[in-house]
Amino acid sequence: MKNYNQDDAYLRAKHKMNKLKGFYKHLAAYIIINSLIFGMKIIRNLTHGETFSEAFFDIDFYGLWLFWGIGLAFHAFCVFGANHMFGKDWEENKIKKFMEDDERNVNSNRK
C-alpha cells in the first residue's frame, strides 16, 4: 500500500510540475513575442514621422497584450487557482474530512 501511495503522489507531483512548466513557457512566450511586436510597431511608427509618445501610446498595440493576457490569466487560474479550489488534493482532503466527521459522530453516538 505504501508503494502505491508514493507512486501516486509522485505522479500527481509530476503532473503539477508539468502544468507549472507549461504556464511559465506560456508566460515567457507572452512577454517575448508581445515585446518584439510592440517594439517593431513603435519603430515602424517612428519611421512614419510619429513622436515616441504618439507611437508608444497608440491604442492598436494593446489589443494583443489584453486578449492574450486574458488567456494567460485563465491559464494561471487553471494552474494556481483551480487546483487549490477543486483539484484532486481538494477532493481527497474533503473526503478525509467527511470520513473524520462521520467517525466522530459514530464515536459520540456510542458514548
How is this structure best summarized?
This protein has helices at residues 2-47, 52-56, 62-86, 88-110. With 111 residues, the protein is mostly helical.
Please provide a written account of the structure.
With 111 residues, this protein is an all-alpha fold. The chain has one domain (15-110). 89% of the residues lie in helices and 0% in strands. It has 4 helices and no strands. Helix 3 (62-86) runs parallel beside helix 4 (88-110). The protein is elongated and about 85 Å long. It starts with a helix and ends with a helix. The relative contact order is 0.08. The model has no long low-confidence stretch (mean pLDDT 83).
Strand content: under 5%
Shape: elongated
Integer count of domains:
1
- Report the span from N to C terminus: 33 Å
* SSE series: HHHH
Structural class: mainly alpha
Mean of pLDDT: 83
Helix content bin? over 70%
Query: How many DSSP helices?
Result: 4
Q: Please provide the count of β strands.
A: 0
Low-confidence stretches: none
Gyration radius (Cα, Å) is 25 Å
Largest sheet: none
Q: Which labels suit this protein?
A:
elongated; 0% strand; 89% helix; 4 helices; mainly alpha
How is this fold's topology laid out?
Elements: H1 2-47, H2 52-56, H3 62-86, H4 88-110
Helix pairs in contact: 1-3, 3-4
